[in-house]
Amino acid sequence: MPNVLTVRGLKKSYGSQMALAGIDFEVRAGEVFALIGPNGAGKTTTLRIVATLLTSSAGEVTFLDHDLCKEPDFVREKISYLPEEAGAYKDMKGLDYLHFMAAFYARTPEEEKEFVDRAVAITELGDRLRTKVGTYSKGMTRKLLLARALMTKPVLAILDEPTSGLDVLNALEVREIVRRYVREGTSVLLSSHNMLEIEFLSDRVALIDKGRILDSGTPAELKDKHEAKNLEEVFRSSVR
Amino acid sequence: MKRFTNLLKKEIKELVTKQLIISLAFTVILFNFIGQMSKKEVRKAIGVQTISALDEDGSAGSQALLKGLESARFKILDQSGKTKDQAIETAKAGESKLLLVIPKGFGDSLTELKPSEIETYSFMRSFSLIGARGQIVVQSVISALNEALSNNFLREKLPDMDPASLKKPIKSKDFVIVQDKMAEGSANMVAGLISQQSLLIPVVLMMIVIYSSQMVISAVAMEKQNKTLETLLTVPIKRTSIITAKMLAAGLVGLISAGVYMVGFKGFFGGIGDEAGMAGLQAGGASMMRQLGLYFNTSGYIILGLSIFMAILVALALAMILGVLAEDFRSAQNMIMPLMFMVMIPYFISLFADINTVSLPVKIFILAIPFSHPFLVSQNLYLGNYGMIAAGLVYMLIVFVILVIAAARIFSTDKILTMKLRFGKKKAAAA
Question: Which residue in the set B227, B230, B238 is minimally distant from A53, CB to CB?
């Protein structure tokens, strides 16, 4: 499978604080690649750089053979980013929010409708989409935001803690939606604390700590290599 | 363009809330109400006023005084036959604003041209200036009476002489020269009329600048607080378009809001300044101002409008940067303070001093504030200082371009997410 995203020697520092100390990884077409690690490991910084929100201090990020640094506008056309603590405009109705976001990507009104219809199906919120986002529960808002991120069928969806704050059933549903879109061709770069979620969702995983990638591979490979029952044990073994 | 329009629509919709419409409508209604109330009071004050008079003299002179007051639109309640204390009590209990007591011997003193004294008792039921107007009119009637009596005396004793020339042998005829134009009038009157004409400029400017800037700062701060900024920054739209859409929306809504407020103000000022006398005075002044060339023609209004517009643009660009520094809506409220000071400094200085004649360091300081220039436009237009006006416009344009470039750079870099100004606390930007 060709690479959608290639990251080489990526470094990022905020003043004297080093957030990324030179990381390498790639996301292949049609796969879910996950970054797992503790708080402050550098997961969100990596995702923000790939999403064109932050600039790197050193290293190279290539998206579909385009330099992310030099062509951020090209990248933004093809990706979508779901931040961990994302919100939607509270005074907008859910449907209006989807139309507002779809209009940035759609080239024709028909395409905009297609995007919104797809998002409506993902949210399963029905008539609640005609009410203001401010009245939604956390789970409803997260589903709306996930629908926004996937409705354009982006080449790469960057999902930061996609099930953050969701109950078990909602989290399960979100994971199934993500897997469905991956089957339809979208590649996913995600980060999560939830090792179970990572095992269920990811094709390949990178363990990240203190701005460095400790190990990477498929969940099965990593478990074999570290003689561990699950990814939590793999992570503990890698940190040691 | 479609993406920009999409964002602009959203920005305008976010700003034009029910609360804004209600607050604008409420302000207009409130100002109009206050204006109408004031108008009523002014009409009452200049209309027929009731005073009480205790004429203890009953002479031709005292009758002439009361007739004079009647012709000055006073309704006189006669308290004859009462003692002074009874008259005071009766007048106090009634609607009279003033009691006039003409003592015995008043007429005789007048005939003999000896100083005579009358007493006035004002009943202050409120402390408004309009409320005290009654006594002022009585005083002017008395002074008119004094004038007539002394003129009569002088005519009697010196029939060949003009009493006015005798009383004021030296007369001054005042002329004012502005540039190469001259008109009859006093410098005081010109200065008064100029400040009256330019009164609205700082009010309009302050309102639009503060209103629009508040909107831009809040718009950026709200995106941060609601965690929508990160998503917006990753959609395919140029960062400069995001800045422009936010500034344009705030500018448009700010202009409309200021316009609505001005309608309210007009209702308010129209109420308190709608006296026939004032209109007459202004008409007289207007012809003098026209002779001196101290009025705005179309090009003057265009230049003034351009200057105010440039100041608004500078304020919006500065507000955009301040908005980035704000962490949330609450801190955005504090961010407006530096901008308010920058507008208020030239405003207050223009109230109490002439910016053109202050010391050089103060002048440089004031001119360095972009918002000072619209305050100076009217003066410079009148005095023909077109160079100063052009320099002011160019300076504001340069400041605006620098601020927009700075805002665009901030929006295009990490700073949009990492730049914060926290009051009293420091927080590292961590992932």
Answer: B230
Residue B404 counted as domain residue: yes
Domain that holds residue A20: 3-86+156-239
CB contacts < 8 A (A, B): 82
Among chain B residues, the shortest Cα distance to A100 is held by B6
In a domain, A37, yes or no: yes
In a domain, B425, yes or no: no
Contacts of A91 in chain B (CB under 8 A): 14, 17
CA distance B144 to B213: 55
**Is B120 found in the same domain as B54?**
yes
Q: Tokens for B53, please give them.
A: 């008079």
Q: Which residue of B has its CA nearest to A38?
A: B431
- What ipTM does the predicted assembly reach? 0.89
* CA–CA separation, B36 and A38 (whole Å): 68
How much is the pTM? 0.72
Residues B89 and B120 in one domain: yes
Out of B2, B227, B235, whose CB is closest to A86? Answer: B227
Number of domains in chain A: 1
Question: Are the C-beta atoms of B202 and B210 separated by less than 8 Å?
Answer: no
Say which DSSP state A125 is in: -
Question: Does some domain include residue A94?
Answer: no
DSSP element (H, E) containing A28? strand A17-28
What is the CATH number for A37? 3.40.50.300
Q: What are phi and psi of B74, to 5 degrees?
A: -105, 140
Rounded CA-CA distance B341/B177 in Å is 36
pLDDT digits (tens, 9 = 90+) for B38-52: 777 767 666 677 888
Question: Taking the C-alpha atoms of A44, A49, A52 and A58 in order, what is their torsion angle to the nearest 10 degrees?
Answer: 160
User: Which domain, by its residues, includes B111?
Assistant: 49-166
Residues β-bridged to residue B182: B177
Whether B259 is in a domain gets the answer: yes
Q: Look up residue A140 and give its two tokens.
A: 């409803």
pLDDT (tens digit per residue) in A100-157? 999 999 989 999 999 999 999 888 888 899 999 999 988 889 889 999 999 999 999 9
Residues facing A206 on adjacent strands: A35, A216
B389 and B291 belong to one structural domain? yes
pLDDT digits (tens, 9 = 90+) for B92-145: 888 777 888 888 888 888 777 777 788 888 887 766 666 666 667 677 767 777
Nearest CA in chain A to B419: A14
Q: Do the chains contact at B234 and A81, CB–CB below 8 Å? A: yes
Query: Measured between CA atoms, how close is A227 to chain B, in angstroms?
Result: 31
B231 close to A (CB below 8 A): yes
- B-chain residues near A89 (CB < 8 A): 10, 14, 226, 228
Tell whether B238 lies on the interface with A, counting CB pairs under 8 A. yes
- Partnered with residue A7 across adjacent β-strands are A25, A61
Task: Judge whether A185 and A220 are in contact, CB under 8 Å.
Answer: no
Looking at the fold, whether B103 and B123 belong to one and the same domain comes out as yes
Whether B3 and A42 lie within 8 Å, measured CB to CB = no
B431 contacts B414 by C-beta, under 8 angstroms:
no
Q: Is residue A131 part of a domain?
A: no
B78 φ/ψ angles, rounded to the nearest 5 degrees: -75, 125
Instruction: Report the C-alpha gap between A140 and A133 in whole angstroms.
Output: 9
Put simply, whether B230 touches A (Cβ < 8 Å) is: yes
Q: Inform me whether the C-beta atom of residue B233 falls under 8 Å from chain A C-beta atoms.
A: yes
